[in-house]
Design goal:
4-stranded antiparallel sheet; mainly beta; Cathepsin D, subunit A, domain 1; Aspartic_peptidase_AS; 7 helices; aspartyl protease; binds 2-acetamido-2-deoxy-beta-D-glucopyranose; signal
Amino acid sequence: MIKLALLQLGLAAASATAASEADYSAVKDGKLGFISMPLTRRENKRPSLRARDNDVPLYNQTSVSYLIELNIGTPEQTVKVAIDTGSDELWVNPDCTTSGSVDLEQDCYEHGQYDPNDSSTSTVTSVENYIPYGKGEVQMQYVLDNITLSDSTLEISQQIFGVAVASSELNEGILGLSYGMDVNLDYPNFVDMLYLQNQTNTRAFSIALGSKDTNIGGTLIFGGVDTKKFTGDLKSADILGPQNGEQLARYWVNLTGVAFTNDGDSSAYDMNTVPVVLDSGSTLSYLPEAIVADMATDLDGEWDRTNELYIVPCDTAEKTDTMDFSFGNDITIRVPMYEFIWEAASDICVLGAIGISTLDVALLGDSVMRAGYFVFDQDNGAIHMAQYANCGENEQAIPSDGKATDFSGDCTEEDAEDIINGDTSSGSGSGSGSGSNSDSDSQDDESGIGALTGNTGAAFILAAAVAFSLL
Ligand SMILES: *[C@@H]1O[C@H](CO)[C@@H](O)[C@H](O)[C@H]1NC(C)=O
Ligand SMILES: *[C@@H]1O[C@H](CO)[C@@H](O)[C@H](O)[C@H]1NC(C)=O
Ligand SMILES: *[C@@H]1O[C@H](CO)[C@@H](O)[C@H](O)[C@H]1NC(C)=O
Ligand SMILES: *[C@@H]1O[C@H](CO)[C@@H](O)[C@H](O)[C@H]1NC(C)=O
Ligand SMILES: *[C@@H]1O[C@H](CO)[C@@H](O)[C@H](O)[C@H]1NC(C)=O
């Protein structure tokens, strides 16, 4: 979900400061900044997809979320939230009745709700805030409470987060993983607190979403990397400052090129470098119209006027072609067609990118991110990337004097080819295991939500479950 920049009158900032004296004492350097989200921008409207030949809505387009489980309060109350690199705040308790469908509503209730009145460690503040996303919005009240993650020793004391008082079109709470204190927010968010309370050595976390075609959940590691989830070295793309006239820090990087590789022949699309946000909370990617139109031409896409996206033949997803995204000279993530094409309903396949005008925020969502391994490194101002592969598990903490780029992937090129060719069955078997013997080689196939493989020294690893919520 992309959090939209909005005009803000400093109300929340002012009252949060008032509430802060006692509440923020857990923060070691206790410095409060200011909220800076001053400009409005146009909403990226996500249409509901309709059948081409009639006007009956088939389903709504918001399909896949990556969820983790949080235990909040004393005694613990369990809720599931979507991990989201496109926004920066944590909140819970969506209004399920506005989810959009009976199924989504049911899903929403199953994600759980948190009641601060039932927790002896909660503090309810009078501070409220409003967050609009690309789709959906929430009005929330700030609460402080302790948070743990299942099956781990992780414990955050007195995290500040939102409890929704009203929301629309959101069927799950959101764990925003973007910049917090002193950058976008005047309080430490979840990523900040992990660092400030010495649970991680660095404000960095890594994400392998995992393939959409398997039950294998993705892996999110706060303060660490899993070297058996990628091949080659991690290469760094500098995070850009605010773009599009916003004053919001986001995970912007330069997308320098896109190419289509068809039967081994690669042809680059004609384009200028474009800043894009890496957004794990978005199913599809949003790119300049001209590039998307060229992709559609190559993939025999047909413009669907009603839904404003391209429908492509479903057998495209079976081809071994790739859409290749470059971030500077030495980083290219090759996205297999079966990841890039979204089978939105039986026999209806959608191109994984939607065209936008230059006024909109361009972003790479899950349709691209599933093909890569990404370390979001706030401390070094870079996203470190590599081609996703899966050859087991070797989770390592990034030391306080080290960098994510000190680690290289344990998987072979072949492991990555297997994924690109849609052969995800080989899993841990073919791993080269070059020298790392802490390898538990456990397939991370715990489909349980928030299945947590533990604390490997200042790093927390969770297997995020994939929830499909198609209508
Ligand atoms: C899709 O969502 C919109 C609101 O986002 C809602 O008005 C519409 O009824 C939904 N469609 C279906 C088929 O549920
Ligand atoms: C918690 O208690 C307060 C005061 O008793 C009440 O106003 C509020 O509605 C309660 N909140 C919930 C979620 O029940
Ligand atoms: C939980 O919150 C209370 C404050 O209400 C605090 O004293 C305590 O240390 C926190 N942490 C744990 C692990 O209970
Ligand atoms: C974190 O570690 C630092 C340095 O070791 C220490 O000074 C600080 O008190 C610790 N903070 C917490 C919240 O434990
Ligand atoms: C991003 O691209 C722009 C335009 O080509 C360039 O001026 C800028 O230096 C690039 N920034 C980084 C960090 O690569």
